[in-house]
Amino acid sequence: xxxxxxxxxxxxxxxxxxxxxxxxxxxxxxxxxxxxxxxxxxxxxxxxxxxxxxxxxxxxxxxxxxxxxxxxxxxxxxxxxxxxxxxxxxxxxxxxxxxxxxxxxxxxxxxxxxxxxxxxxxxxxxxxxxxxxxxxxxxxxxxxxxxxxxxxxxxxxxxxxxxxxxxx
Length: 168
Hints:
The protein has 168 residues and is α+β, with helices and mostly antiparallel strands.
């Protein structure tokens, strides 16, 4: 099939697709404490994820990243949100946020990306999170429980402060 009908235009906004997944086990979420080489995010907690590879759909990419980073295969993994990240230059980032669950006996393996930790979803504010997680994670978990989706836009102001707007 040709993509000629898609009207691709290099002057329009383009994105690099990435996934970010949150794995639940009862009232806990699996987060990754990022390694020291991650700049300002070093030592902070984030979900699991990475780039969508050529030939992958978003959910296949999310499952692969979860297996690579934690050795888990969550059931009922669902796309819960899409975030467009204006990086201030082209391309931007398209972040596909997924949530899934594992059983009580699920034990993640060590990750070269950083240290994995189960965190109680009611205690998130007590932990050092990457800058968007305090807003993004509760929204993703709520949408997962309601079987809904959200859309959001991230932009940074001239001082570098993150501004999050939700479209739902």
